[in-house]
């Protein structure tokens, strides 16, 4: 009669996705920190910061899901 809800992403992939997204976010953060004054551009700084923020947010979300804290 009732069917259990199944998410789009398999729960077995939560760990892999969290490590992947957190790694990408940390690399982008490091890139943003290591920018020199010669290569500094406001638009580049904002775009790299935005991308790093998105990846760190997704990585944190999947890490919480992986730990069993459902938000």
From TrEMBL:
Membrane topology: Multi-pass membrane protein
Purpose of the protein: Subunit of the oligosaccharyl transferase (OST) complex that catalyzes the initial transfer of a defined glycan (Glc(3)Man(9)GlcNAc(2) in eukaryotes) from the lipid carrier dolichol-pyrophosphate to an asparagine residue within an Asn-X-Ser/Thr consensus motif in nascent polypeptide chains, the first step in protein N-glycosylation. N-glycosylation occurs cotranslationally and the complex associates with the Sec61 complex at the channel-forming translocon complex that mediates protein translocation across the endoplasmic reticulum (ER). All subunits are required for a maximal enzyme activity.
UniProt lineage: Eukaryota, Sar, Stramenopiles, Bigyra, Opalozoa
Top-level taxon in the UniProt lineage: Eukaryota
Subunit-structure text: Component of the oligosaccharyltransferase (OST) complex.
Matching PANTHER family: TRANSMEMBRANE PROTEIN 258
Segments passing through the bilayer: 12-34, 46-66
GO BP: any one term: protein N-linked glycosylation
Keyword Coiled coil among UniProt keywords: no
Name the UniProt record assigns to this protein: Dolichyl-diphosphooligosaccharide-protein glycosyltransferase subunit OST5
Key words of the record: Membrane, Transmembrane, Transmembrane helix
Pfam family, one: Ost5
Species this protein is from: Blastocystis hominis
Subcellular localization, as worded in the UniProt entry: Membrane
Stated family: Belongs to the OST5 family.
């Amino acid at each position: 009669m009732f069917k259990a809800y199944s998410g789009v992403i398999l729960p077995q992939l939560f760990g892999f996705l969290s490590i992947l997204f957190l790694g990408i976010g940390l690399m982008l953060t490091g890139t943003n920190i290591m920018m020199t004054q010669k290569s500094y551009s406001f638009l580049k700084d904002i775009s790299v910061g935005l991308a790093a923020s998105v990846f760190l947010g997704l990585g944190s979300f999947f890490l919480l899901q992986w730990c069993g804290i459902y938000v």
